[in-house]
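User:
Can I borrow your eye for a moment on a structure tokenisation matter? Would you put together a sequence-and-structure record for a protein of your own picking? Please set it down just below, with no commentary around it:
AI:
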Amino acid sequence: MGLHPRLLPIFRAKIANPRNWWRVHRALLSYRREDLANPEGAGAMVDHLATVLAVPLTPAERVGAVNWLVAQRIDPRNPLHQMRMWNVVYGM
């Protein structure tokens, strides 16, 4: 199961607000690659972002988002990985 198709447009729209962008950026930088390499750490980040952006998630959407995030093997502090993730968010 991957990222639910409903979520990406919602997150894109919310992140378009500059105030939310900074909140998301700070949230991302508070995690390390090791945190996102396991479902518990990735789940914490998914919950954090959902709270920051006020996006309610169903349990199935959360599981899909966690699995998708773990599969991406992202280091949120690596500038190249940051660019890759912003490209996903902005649809590039």
In short: The chain has one domain: 7-89. The mean pLDDT is 88.
